[in-house]
User: Fold this.
Amino acid sequence: MDQTLIASIFSGSLWQIISSTSTFGLFILIVLTTMSFVSWVIIFHKWRQFRAVEKDNSRFQHHFERARQLSESVGQAKASSNSPISTIFLSGYNELVELKERKNQGGALQQTVKPLDNDDYEIVEMAMERSLTEQMGILERKVIFLASTANSAPFMGLLGTVVGIMDSFWAIGERGSASLAVVAPGIAEALLATIVGLGAAIPAVIAFNWANNKLKFLNDFAGNFILGFIAQAKKEDR
Assistant:
């Protein structure tokens, strides 16, 4: 029976199965199909976003490591619009400049330039970490939908399966027969809901794990960049 059903699905009878599906089963299929479509849109969008982020991050990091002064990286940071670490850099650099101006308000009247202390560098680091949190929040947008799809789609498919099997038993009770013609529509509906549920969940699971790994790498990468920025700032302040 299973081979006959599968053969019928792939031989053009899929629309016949859908047309004979109950209202509730059709609702489940529509919801699952919509979730799958949205998931694929998010997957494609995140793939493009992460690719652009990694490209700009690598370019800016390379420029930052070659620069002798932090000020030399400002222009590159402003040009790297897709790079989270460039935004983090600008947050730290602007905070650093502001703290130095406040500490040396005397300008030319002062004989010596006051260096920043550990509390000042802690403020700079906090500003950069705040910017990091904001950037990670931007990158994490819509990823939660993949997790929701991965967790809920199989259960929604199972719900459709149960409804289809219930329809089959109801048809057996009404007609007093357990022939293939009686139970096939309900079983077909049940198996179709399972297929669509798994088809929505499996790509979402893979994409969610992939996105999480990318986010973890970017978070660690940005954390190391902040440490490098603070170290460079302290060297220049000596």
Q: What stands out?
A: Residues 8-12 have pLDDT under 50 and may be disordered. The CA atoms of residues 93 and 181 lie 74 Å apart.
